[in-house]
What does this fold into?
Amino acid sequence: MSEPSTADQPTRADFWLRLGYGAALFGLIFAVVVSWNCLQRLAVDREEVVNATQVLDRANVWWAVLGTIVALVTGVVFLVLATRRLRHLRRDTTKLETELREARESLDTRVRGRMLELQTAKEAAEAAVRAKSDFLAVMSHEIRTPMNSVIGFADLLSDTPLNPEQYEYIRAISSNTEQLLGLVNDILDFSKLEAGQLAVEPAPVDVRTCVEEVIKTLQPRQGGRPIELLCDLGPGIPAAVLTDGGLLRQILINLIGNALKFTEKGDILVSARVAEPPAPGSRKLVLEFRVADTGIGIPPDKINRLFKPFSQVDSSATRRRNGTGLGLAISKRLVEAMGGKLGVASNPGEGSTFYFTLPVQLGEDFGGNTTWRLPDYLVKGRRLLLVDENPKRRRILQEFANQFGLACDLEVSNFHAVERLEAGEHFDLVLIDGGMPAAELERIRRAAKSRPSPPAILLCDRDSPGLTPDRGWLAGLVRKPIRMAQFYDTLLDTLKDRAPTRATQPSAPPAPFPMARFNPLRILIVEDNCGNRQITDLLLRKLGYEPTAVEHGAASLALLATQDFDLILLDVQMPGIDGLETVRRIRDLEKERGRINHARGAAYISALTANAMEGDREVCLLAGMDDYLAKPVHGSDLRALIERVWVRKAPLYGTQPQSSAEAG
It folds into this structure.
């Protein structure tokens, strides 16, 4: 039988106590009433009591008195019993309260111990996360530092005269270093996502430029395979949208890189469209991007493995395609972090299509060419013959020509195009795929030399040898992958005077020192690694600058005491005085000299570091730096940095800033 609960025991005590009090009170009242009646009866004159009935009545009165006494005694007994029971219950209640208090104290002690264990475990987990982040940061720095030299020297070497064998060696070096860099970036990005350190930073982005630049960057990954990268962005894409351009670029790199990995021949088409146009009075819209390949496809039963970290469709030990299995998992999380969705449609043997949506906002136009229409006096009444066997590329080029305002005739067969030209059909311009057989190309050359013919623009691969535009038949080259701006510039210059532009003439030497001539700057390099110091120096000298280089922070401070510089490229991790302490001392020195901003002579300081973890940029900026470049650094990164510096420094020289494109 279970013990009564502490909540029931006070209730029972109250019951017995009330019962005892009630019985005693009833006995007392009954005794008073009966006694009163008895006294009334005894007051009757004794002489009048003569018969037996009166005697009997008196006897009943005495029995009533006796009953009253019994009732009173019974009430007293009940009261005593209830009082004793109440004392027992109070004692039991006190005991239970003591036990409850002890149990509560024990529970509090156990909870405090458990909370202490959880706090210790939390601190240990946080320490493990910090250790992992520190390890990744160190490994990133140690890997990126030599990679910066390898990639930089390979780029410089590729600009020198090379024979075909040497060119293949350089391309192999560049391809493998880029692959290693991609692996490092994937691991770092996944670590950021796991730690919840990803930050989405919307900024104005030119979607067309972003997609075309990604395709151009990934072109070398073809590895000699017959694969063509195509870009199809319709006229409905806004010139500028507000989104995180860096994350968008990374998503595209991962998806296109995955398509290149599993495609042996054919093409990879990157397209974008407006999935949801903005509502009236709103600037919000949804863009949809697609990356479609003609690769091996994905079996339906293995699609669910695509977006799992470190998982691949072909996970066997004999798989031919390398990779960490992180690219798609990272892409999915990035898309979701930006508010979109990522999906895939695939058929084995027919290829795959990865698609994702991104909610964006309309941004301000960049002031560039948003209409992409050639001047009327160049296109009015002129005909373009477009010869291409690839239906996707033919459709894209036709859309480009239509946007440019140029009438376009299509021809699928190179042979039929040659027949039309030989028959004397009039065209003002011919666009031909350079991938045609050499015999047909030579036939077109001979036909063009034997009679007046329209100028030709040749679509060719980036590494096609022996092709140089001239003022005769071959008026221009459009290098694959085809970019709208390049195609536009080539058509513009060809229609104007049949002369190629510098942008379409890769074999022509660049203008001597264009950037330094238009944007003069005094530059200081502070870098402890000899290889990185040398490659940064060479890249700047290619732009026409004569930088000064020192190997540690103390040397830079000693130099700044006697010389002034406009731009300081400062490594962060250096022996002795590191980059953060160096920039603080530089800023203190400038304040003493009254150089409180760039217009008054303060140096523009940019971090030049192999650190690429989340928060590294913010740490550098808080220390007093103006910019941040992560290694490996390319020439294009330095050019963009110099343009940003010149915007701040131009008032000191009394000139207007000049972009690298305008500088030549």
In short: Confidence is low (pLDDT under 50) at residues 316-320, 498-513, 655-664.
